TrEMBL record:
GO CC terms: cytoplasm
Name of protein: Acetate kinase
E.C. number: 2.7.2.1
Family per record: Belongs to the acetokinase family.
Binding residues annotated for substrate, in chain numbering: R90
Site-annotated residues for Transition state stabilizer: H179, R240
Stored SUPFAM superfamilies: Actin-like ATPase domain
Listed cofactors: Mg(2+); Mn(2+)
Organism: Pediococcus acidilactici DSM 20284
Amino acid sequence: MLKELVINAGSSTLKWKLFSMPDEQILASGLVDRIDLPASVFTAQQPGQEKYRITQDNITYDLAATMVLSYLKDQGAVEHLHEISGIGHRVVAGGEYFKDSVLVDNEVLAQIKELSQYAPLHNPIEARYIEIFMQLLPKARQVAVFDTSLYAEMPKVNYLYPIPYEYYTEYGVRKYGAHGTSHRYVAQRAAEMLGRPLEDLKLITCHLGSGSSITAFDQGQVIDTSMGFTPLGGVMMATRAGDLDASLVAFLAEKLEISVEEVVDILNQKSGLLGISQLSPDQRDLEEAAPTNPQAQLALDMFINRVVRFIGSYVAELGGLDAIVFTAGCGENAIEVRQKIADQLSYFGLAVDASRNDVRGKERKISPDNAAVDVLVVPTNEELMIVRDVQRLAN
C-alpha cells in the first residue's frame, strides 16, 4: 500500500488529504484556515475518530505544512513520514507549458513561478508549498496538477480573443479556463454512471459554486469553457461579475476616480450575486430573502439566466447533447436552481424528475428515464483526481 498526500493551497487556506493507494481510501484529511491571520485554525480528522482542532495566531505557510506532517505522525496516520511516497499539488495556472500533470523538478518549479502573472493570487503560494514539501520530504515525488491543463488544447477558434494576434503570440493572451480538475472528474464519473465511454458523449459539465464555470466535451475532448484569461470571466458568480463589456472598466475608473486595478478588484470581490443583491454572495441567503427582497430575487434570476445562456451556446457548438452534469456547492445542493435551469432548457430535451431531483450532495441521475438528455448530479472530487495523477505519473 502506498500513502500519497494531496495539497490544495489557497491564499489563506490549506486543504489536504492523505490517501492509501491504489485502493483510494482516505486515511486522514484536514484544513488550515486563516493562514497568516489572527486566530488561525488547524482541523483534521481520521475515519472513526473525533475531529482534531487547534487555534493559534498567525500560522504561517511553513508552519501549516509542518503541522500537517506532525499531525499525521503524532496521531498515527503514518508511523514514519517516509511512508508518504508522493505529494500532489493543485496549481491553478499552467499556461500553455503544461498540458498534463507533471513531476516537479527545479525547472518545472521555475516555470510555475513564471506563470504567476496569470494567477497572481495562487501560483506563488502553490510554488511556495512545493518548495516547503520538497524540503520536508525530499524523497517523496512532487506532482503538479494544473487547473488549466484540461483546456490547453481547446480549438483555437474558441480560446483566442478577437484582438491583435500578436497579443497571443507575445503575451499569451488567450482563454485558459479554470476548475479543470473538477470538470475532468465529473465528466469521467458521468460517463461511468451512464455506462458509455466519454469518447462517445456530447457532454456539458456545470461547476456551480462560489466560483462557477461551464465546460463542453465532445467525444472526450474539451471544445469550450466559460472562464477566460482569468477566473473573472464567464457566468455571473458569488462576487465575480463574469463576462461584460470591457469598456466598462475604463468608464468606471473615470467615474469613480480609481485605478483600473481597483475596478478589477470590484469586479472580482464586490460584484456578482453580492453586487446585485447588495445583501450576500451566498445563494442560500438570497433564497431565504427573495420572497420579500426584489434585489435578492433579481440576483438569483440573473445567475440562472447566465448559466442558461452558456449551456444553450454550447449545445449549439456541440450540435446536440447527450448529458448535462451539475457539481460543486450550488450544483450539488441547489434543488430549485437545477429545476429552473432544466425548465428554461426544456426545448433541448432537458427535464428533471421532481422526486429524483430532491437530493443534495449525492450522485444521482435526476432526469426521467425517457428524457432525451440525461441530467446528473455528481459531487466533485478534485483531490481524488490529483492523487490518481500522482499514481499515474509514478507508474
